[in-house]
Design goal:
The two termini are about 15 Å apart. Strands 5-6-12-10-11 form a five-stranded antiparallel β-sheet. A four-stranded antiparallel β-sheet has the order 14-17-16-15. By secondary structure, it is an alpha+beta fold. It folds into three domains: about 50 residues, Uridine Diphospho-n-acetylenolpyruvylglucosamine Reductase, domain 2 (2-Layer Sandwich), CATH 3.30.43; about 110 residues, Uridine Diphospho-n-acetylenolpyruvylglucosamine Reductase, domain 3; about 90 residues, Uridine Diphospho-n-acetylenolpyruvylglucosamine Reductase, domain 1 (Alpha-Beta Complex), CATH 3.90.78. It contains seven helices and 18 strands. The structure holds flavin-adenine dinucleotide. Flavin-adenine dinucleotide binds next to β2, α3, β8, β12 and β14. Flavin-adenine dinucleotide (FAD) binds next to β2, α3, β8, β12 and β14.
């Protein structure tokens, strides 16, 4: 969204062990902690937040598991020996990524290997850690769909493995309950590279048609409401029907292209965006009776 202030501390670990050290260092000093991935789904308040932001951007790593690790938790940094022949993807269709890997990079790596299952992430910005925490995705699939397990640092500061069944991810909720995501392992389906590519291209075309992808935004502001309560209308459809497209506060505006997006027309403050979010939510509630819930995270100071 390109708004918001600063944090007193920013830590950028480069490995899972450093990530844990960062977490423990902040805990030992009794400082409040927040986790930051790509920031695609966060609207931080203006001003300075007196806490520690742990950012995973430097933890960009994608790899395939070494042969013979079928039953292990292969999230460690083992470099395959140059002499180790990697099995064809048909034999081991797993892909591993650390928290700071961007979702587009993960999707491209799968495509290049001829692995299918992550195409639904086409056009979704952000990183693996934030994506797992949010269960990012949409109509064509979510990030957790093919995840075999996720490694987290739990509230006690220990590494812990969570299977999909244990996390029980739901719509825009990865079920990690505030644990710090370290990385994940996906079990994908071998498929011809060109078929995967075509699918991604089709989804991207659709996204570009309906979303303001070239503007500064935080993606969808509201979660889609319960279909029964909203008579089947999505959050975007509700905002649109209330006539709120184009509503502007400061330089923040409800997108003309997609009513569930707020865009920064240049120079907006977080305060402009917060006020507009509240205004839209209140007007929708008054006129339709549907209470919309924020999908984006507001980081208050
Ligand atoms: C143009 C645009 C289009 C978008 N389209 C979609 C879409 O189609 N579908 C969709 O689901 N989302 C969409 N989004 C939202 C966003 O891309 C996703 O929510 C994405 O997963 C956010 O990843 P991130 O790394 O940027 O997370 P951030 O925004 O940095 O963080 C999001 C949340 O995850 C937490 N978090 C971050 N890293 C970690 C970690 N390592 N461990 C634990 N918690 C962590 C943060 O504290 C925060 O609560 C869109 C956003 C934009 C700007």
């Amino acid at each position: 969204m390109r708004v918001g202030g600063q944090a007193r501390w920013l830590l950028e670990p480069t490995t899972p062990e450093e990530l844990r050290e960062a977490y423990l260092a902040a805990r030992e000093r009794d400082l409040p902690i927040r986790y930051l991935g790509g920031g695609a789904n966060i609207i931080p308040a203006d001003g300075v937040w007196e806490g520690v932001v742990i950012c995973t951007t430097q933890m960009r790593r994608i790899f395939r598991p070494l042969p013979g690790t079928e039953n292990d938790s292969p999230l460690e940094e083992d470099e395959p020996d140059a002499r180790t022949a990697m099995p064809p993807v048909e034999q081991d269709p797993r892909l591993i990524a650390w928290a700071g890997t961007t979702l587009p990079a993960l999707m491209r790596a799968a495509r290049d290997l001829g692995l299918s299952g992550l195409e639904g992430l086409a056009g979704v910005p952000g990183q693996v850690g934030g994506g797992i925490a949010m269960n990012a995705g949409g109509t064509w699939g979510d990030l957790w769909d093919h995840a075999e397990y996720v490694q987290v640092i739990n509230h006690g500061g220990e590494f812990q493995t969570l299977t999909r069944e244990e996390a029980n991810p739901t719509y825009r909720n990865g079920g990690v309950h505030g644990s710090l995501v370290v990385g994940a392992v996906w079990r994908l389906e071998p498929r011809p590279r060109l078929v995967v590519q075509e699918q991604i291209a089709e989804y991207l075309r659709h996204k570009r048609d309906v979303q303001p992808v070239t503007e500064s935004s935080a993606g969808c502001i509201f979660k889609n409401p319960d279909k029964e309560k909203s008579e089947g209308r999505s959050a975007g459809a509700l905002v649109d029907q209330m006539g709120l497209k184009g509503l502007t506060i400061g330089a923040a505006q409800v997108s003309q292209k997609h009513a569930n997006f707020i865009i920064n027309n240049g120079g907006a403050t977080a305060s402009d965006v917060y006020q507009l979010m509240d205004e839209v939510r209140d007007r929708v509630a008054q006129k339709s009776g549907v209470e919309l819930e924020f999908e984006v995270k507001r980081w208050l100071v």
